[in-house]
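User: I've been trying to design a sequence by hand for this structure and keep getting stuck. Would you show me what you'd pick, starting by listing the structure so we're on the same page?

Assistant: Good idea, let's start from the same input. This is the structure you sent:
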């Protein structure tokens, strides 16, 4: 009995045990990256010129890889690299597009879209952001503790109980309920402060804000209050990233009508703003006084429509190092459920300490690739909470790496560039049926961030 058959005898239920039937690996699901990317390279078959180019490429890769490895955190071999020069480039690219009199509000909610607000917000403050936007009171307090002194807007209305914290840390809430506004004003007056706020208008997204027809009545109700100042009026588009959207036009018109009504009634709207990243790029006519830019500052597009309009550089890469590697026998299973089994000889199975709790979606199990030395390697087996595995085919003439096998400590790229190959946040988003926003936020949750 061969070792293969012995192995199968052990892993199959006894009722199905049959030493005479050769075990067959189940068919692999199609790998969307596979086509044309794993070029079998045999150094012996290369011409002198090809070999020279190959050596040069390897030397360049080795330098990049050595630089990455030096940055690797001490306690865990997986990390998110944040390229600060890319962030600087992106905010300058947006600044240059906006007229002098239009302010840029840097949206740094969710810990700067996973990039770490402690490092990112001061960089934006120094590179032309006039104001900041966050989603939660805690995020705002954190920014203040990190030394941000510019205005900070909370993009939605928090619970009334947070009013003292808002005043203490000078955070402007978005406001749309009179109960909240009055509580805010009362508390401000009682400590001899003024509560500044931005009035939120729901022009069609049906999320937060006053309806356009309620706006004047609302301002009238608050106008007697000496503890309140309206520092801004804004709305948010639901379809700014879609071409020729009728809904976008309608939101726009409703916003303009609400502003006109405020004007007619003699109310000062403060700073008027509505554009997010795609609207900033596609709809300069609705810039008003300020644009709220989020995803674009991190180097990503929310829509294919804007890709040709501005040159952005993705700031986040995700890397890891091989924490273990073996060459299992044919038939061995990999990871929970053993849905993947080694189907031929000379397959290396390498482990990296990065799993779904680090933001790598479990539903990408077996359908994603990682990059090693610029080559795509197929991730295999179910992605675990803190680790996952990938395979390297080291059969002669089938090697996905030209000259060497993968070994302990090697650099692995999960998102970002390595050599000529790149796996983008958009690639991962598309594979997992989501948007690049979610991909970068999730990678930011637990991974150590290394700033370049
Ligand atoms: C998140 C958010 C933004 C920023 O959107 P991007 O598409 O990332 O530019 C702007 N305004 C509001 C109200 C938001 O919630």
């Amino acid at each position: 009995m061969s070792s293969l058959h012995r192995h199968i005898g052990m892993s199959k239920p006894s009722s199905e045990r049959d030493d005479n039937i050769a075990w067959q690996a189940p068919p692999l699901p199609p790998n969307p990256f596979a086509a044309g990317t794993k070029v079998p390279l045999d150094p012996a078959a290369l011409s002198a010129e090809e070999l020279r180019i190959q050596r040069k490429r390897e030397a360049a890769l080795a330098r990049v890889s050595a630089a990455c490895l030096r940055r690797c955190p001490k306690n865990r071999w997986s990390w998110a690299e944040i390229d600060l020069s890319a962030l600087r480039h992106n905010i300058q690219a947006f600044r240059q597009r906006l007229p002098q009199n239009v302010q840029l509000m840097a949206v740094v909610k969710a810990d700067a879209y996973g990039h770490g607000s402690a490092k990112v917000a001061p960089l934006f403050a120094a590179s032309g952001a006039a104001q900041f936007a966050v989603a939660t009171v805690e995020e705002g307090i954190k920014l203040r503790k990190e030394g941000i002194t510019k205005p900070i807007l909370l993009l939605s209305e928090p619970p009334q109980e947070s009013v003292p914290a808002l005043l203490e840390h000078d955070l402007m809430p978005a406001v749309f309920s009179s109960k909240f506004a009055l509580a805010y004003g009362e508390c401000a007056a009682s400590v001899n402060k003024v509560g500044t706020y931005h009035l939120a208008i729901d022009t069609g997204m049906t999320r937060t804000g006053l309806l356009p027809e309620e706006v004047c009545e609302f301002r009238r109700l608050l106008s007697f209050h000496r503890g309140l100042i309206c520092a801004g009026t804004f709305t948010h588009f639901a379809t700014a990233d879609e071409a020729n959207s009728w809904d976008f036009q309608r939101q726009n018109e409703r916003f303009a009508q609400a502003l006109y009504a405020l004007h007619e009634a003699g109310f000062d709207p403060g700073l008027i703003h509505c554009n997010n990243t795609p609207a900033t790029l596609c709809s300069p006519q609705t810039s008003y006084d300020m644009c709220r830019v989020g995803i674009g500052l991190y180097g990503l597009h929310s829509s294919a429509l804007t890709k040709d309009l501005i040159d952005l550089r993705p700031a986040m890469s995700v890397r890891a190092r091989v924490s273990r590697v073996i060459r299992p026998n044919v038939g061995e299973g990999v990871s929970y459920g053993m849905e993947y089994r080694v189907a031929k000889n000379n397959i290396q199975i390498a482990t990296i300490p990065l799993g779904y709790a680090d933001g790598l979606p479990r539903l990408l199990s077996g359908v994603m690739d990682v990059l090693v030395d610029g080559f795509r390697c197929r991730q295999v087996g179910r992605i675990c909470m803190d680790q996952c595995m990938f395979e390297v085919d080291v059969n002669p003439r089938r090697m996905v790496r030209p000259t060497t096998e993968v070994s302990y400590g090697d650099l692995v790229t999960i998102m970002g560039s390595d050599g000529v190959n790149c796996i983008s946040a958009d690639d991962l988003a598309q594979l997992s049926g989501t948007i690049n926003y979610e991909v970068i936020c999730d990678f930011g949750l637990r991974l150590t961030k290394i700033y370049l």
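That's my pick for every position. To get oriented when you compare it with your attempt: DSSP finds 13 helices and 20 strands in the chain. The longest helix spans residues 48-71.
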